[in-house]
């Protein structure tokens, strides 16, 4: 496993880490025993960083991480998120009293004294611009409740604004072969500010595994069903904002990148890791096989400049116009 600095936090994190939305819920049925086996496998393979949130399964994924990392708290780092258990548009959601309550609840579920990275969970830009939330997080950091803080953002505009806040040390972004807008403005600024970049949804909710057809269906409790068109939250969180059928067709148009890289999944992750600004990718998983498949991206060849140019042209000419929602 290779490790990269998480911005200026002082943490070195595995370049392939994992997100725990899928084992918490909203990705179909889960099995706790298999989830724990998968977490153990990731740790055995050198993964030392996991991302979660208080709303993933109403705390389920935080509790699973507590079990999997018991006795390993000093070497396994955890990022969690807050605010979406309340009304994200209400300033009271970001009050010191409320944020402390959520922080303490996460600490209790995680069975830890300090959260390594505490992230605001996709808040509206208006809340960020009001600014008081950053003062609250500064207090929690000074008290040792959190080691560092960051923001999970939806758009380039939100990310650029957050990078101007002195205490923000990391951004969590949606970035993948179908979602390349971040490259031109956000990446250079993050590099200048020495901010960590965590990449969520690197496989576009599974589109970039190449396993779906236009007729694929999902369980009612899976966000790929109930949020397919942005019915519950930002449409970009599901299939990168692409209409599902169009995304399936576009994935076929990228099948060539798997040549010499074993699979579309591994090639898609490798493309992201080829950007030095990225601290880590955090794909989801539900079982040991998926953990192993994602980790195999460590060993496949990087992309040539010619291949990168071809991919960028495909995005500009075939993909960009179909992405829905602000990004």
TrEMBL record:
Gene3D superfamilies for this protein: NADP-dependent oxidoreductase domain
Keyword Iron-sulfur: no
Ranges of residues in domain NADP-dependent oxidoreductase: 15-315
SUPFAM superfamilies: NAD(P)-linked oxidoreductase
UniProt keyword list: Oxidoreductase
Gene Ontology molecular function: oxidoreductase activity
CDD domains named among the record's database cross-references: AKR_AKR11C1
Protein name (database record): Aldo/keto reductase
One Gene Ontology CC term in the entry: cytosol
This protein's record includes keyword Oxidoreductase: yes
InterPro entries named among the record's database cross-references: AKR (IPR020471), AKR_Detox_Biosynth (IPR050523), NAD(P)_OxRdtase_dom_sf (IPR036812), NADP_OxRdtase_dom (IPR023210)
């Amino acid at each position: 496993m290779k490790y990269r600095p998480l911005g200026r936090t002082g943490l070195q994190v595995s370049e392939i880490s994992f997100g725990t939305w899928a084992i918490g819920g909203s990705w179909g049925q889960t099995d706790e025993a298999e989830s724990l086996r998968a977490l153990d496998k990731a740790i055995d393979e050198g993964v030392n960083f996991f991302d979660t949130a208080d709303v993933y399964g109403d705390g389920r994924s935080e509790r699973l991480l507590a079990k999997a990392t018991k006795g390993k708290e000093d070497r396994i780092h955890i990022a969690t998120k807050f605010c979406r258990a309340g009304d994200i548009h209400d300033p009271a959601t970001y009050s010191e009293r409320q944020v402390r309550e959520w922080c303490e609840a996460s600490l209790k579920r995680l069975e830890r004294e300090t959260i390594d990275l505490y992230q605001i969970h996709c808040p509206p830009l208006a809340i960020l611009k009001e600014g008081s939330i950053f003062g609250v997080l500064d207090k929690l950091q000074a008290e040792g409740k959190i080691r560092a803080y960051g923001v999970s953002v939806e758009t380039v505009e939100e990310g650029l604004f957050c990078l101007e806040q002195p205490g923000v040390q990391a951004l969590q972004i949606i970035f993948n072969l179908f979602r390349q807008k971040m490259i031109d403005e956000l990446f250079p600024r993050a590099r200048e500010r020495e901010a960590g970049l965590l990449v969520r949804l690197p496989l576009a909710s599974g589109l970039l595994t190449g396993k779906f057809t236009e007729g694929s269906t999902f369980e009612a409790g899976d966000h790929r069903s109930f949020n397919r068109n942005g019915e519950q939250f930002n449409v970009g969180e599901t299939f990168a904002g692409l209409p599902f059928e169009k995304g399936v067709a576009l994935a076929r148009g990228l099948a060539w990148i798997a040549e010499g890289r074993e699979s579309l999944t591994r090639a898609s992750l490798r493309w992201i890791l080829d950007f030095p600004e990225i601290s880590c990718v955090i794909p989801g998983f539900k079982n040991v096989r998926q953990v192993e498949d994602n980790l195999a991206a460590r060993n496949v060849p990087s992309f040539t400049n010619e291949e990168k140019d071809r991919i960028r042209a495909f995005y500009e000419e075939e993909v960009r116009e179909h992405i829905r929602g602000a990004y």
